[in-house]
Write a structure and sequence with these properties.
Elements: E1 2-6, H1 11-22, E2 26-31, H2 34-42, E3 46-49, H3 55-63, E4 67-70, H4 79-94, E5 100-104, E6 113-116, H5 131-140, E7 144-150, E8 152-155, E9 158-159, H6 160-164, E10 175-176, E11 187-189, H7 190-203, E12 208-212, H8 220-228, E13 233-234, H9 238-245, H10 247-253, E14 257-259, H11 262-266, H12 276-280
Parallel strand pairs: 1-2, 1-4, 2-3, 4-5, 5-7, 6-14, 7-12, 8-11, 10-13
Antiparallel strand pairs: 8-9
Helix pairs in contact: 1-7, 3-4, 4-5, 9-10
Length: 281
């Protein structure tokens, strides 16, 4: 298959590119600079440089593929309009064709929940509430659509846990927790996420939402202790965490979430990556 990908040079996207190329697929990464194009080529993709905010240009590139996966994000306030434009491009290029479109979401969509499934009530924090109408437009469109919702992604020294736990130290060298650390985080290795994208794209079926979670749901205290080694951890109040990380991000990290990823397993997906605790150790 020729798979057109946004976000192909990002943390998850680059893992997806490698997985697809290893599986014998041709990948076209849509990028915004010559520098990003070179990075995409280094990991085995072809590259097309253009303005991803231009829905017409994106639609033309999407139409050249047998499938499309959207993993790019701006990380800023323009993310909502960016995603709306990508969905519009996908509908224009793929609507009614039977070609699969895979959209990226995240586990925070379901809010506090001790047993998240795809049918659980949607209850996102403010940080990701914008996803709800965008994703509904994907599900309502004439697309062979799947929305992949990874848990907290980690692996190879990257991801949120390494970014917010490992470097967060007090004057005694103790790792600062997110709140008191009693909340659970879903977890999934980045290479296992990539394997799920490949599986979904190859099945080319409208699967709706698919939660990608290893089934291992450690507490933040367990993760902090793993990252701390022998230095120990120190709890914060939720307000202290909000002051340190920003209210929106902190409230998402304070969510208490667990998931098994049962639907993904029913599709034939088998996570094999090391656990997040082992990774942080």
């Amino acid at each position: 298959m020729r798979i057109v990908l946004t976000g192909g040079t990002g943390y998850i996207g680059s893992a997806v590119v490698r997985e697809l190329v290893a599986g014998g697929h041709a990948v076209t990464a849509l990028v915004r600079s010559d520098e990003a194009a070179e990075k995409a080529r280094e990991i085995g993709a072809d590259a097309a440089v253009g303005d991803l905010f231009d829905a017409g240009w994106a639609a033309e590139r999407f139409a050249e593929g047998d499938a499309v996966a959207h993993l790019a994000a701006t990380g800023g306030p323009d993310t909502v309009e960016f995603d709306k434009g990508i969905v519009a491009a996908a509908v224009r290029a793929l609507g009614g064709t039977g070609k699969p479109y895979v959209h990226t979401s995240g586990i925070w969509l379901w809010g506090d929940n001790a047993d998240i499934t795809e049918e659980s009530p949607i209850a996102p924090p403010a940080l990701t509430a914008w996803r709800v109408p965008v994703e509904q437009s994907v599900l309502d469109a004439d697309l062979v659509a799947t929305i992949v919702a990874p848990g907290i992604v980690y692996g190879h020294g990257g991801g949120i846990p390494a970014g917010v736990l490992a470097p967060a130290r007090d004057e005694q060298g103790r790792v600062k927790l997110i709140g008191d650390g009693s909340q659970h985080w879903t977890s999934v290795h980045v290479d296992d996420v990539a394997a799920l994208y490949r599986l979904v794209l190859e099945q080319a079926a409208p699967l709706g939402r698919v939660v990608v979670a290893s089934g291992v749901n450690p507490t933040v205290r367990e993760l902090g202790e793993a990252a701390a080694g022998g230095n120990g951890v120190v709890a914060e109040t939720p307000d202290e965490t909000r002051a340190r990380l920003g209210a929106g991000f902190a409230d998402a990290l304070l969510l208490d979430q667990q998931a098994s990823g049962a639907k993904a397993r029913e599709l034939g997906w088998k996570p094999v990556g090391p656990s997040l605790v082992d990774e942080l150790r």
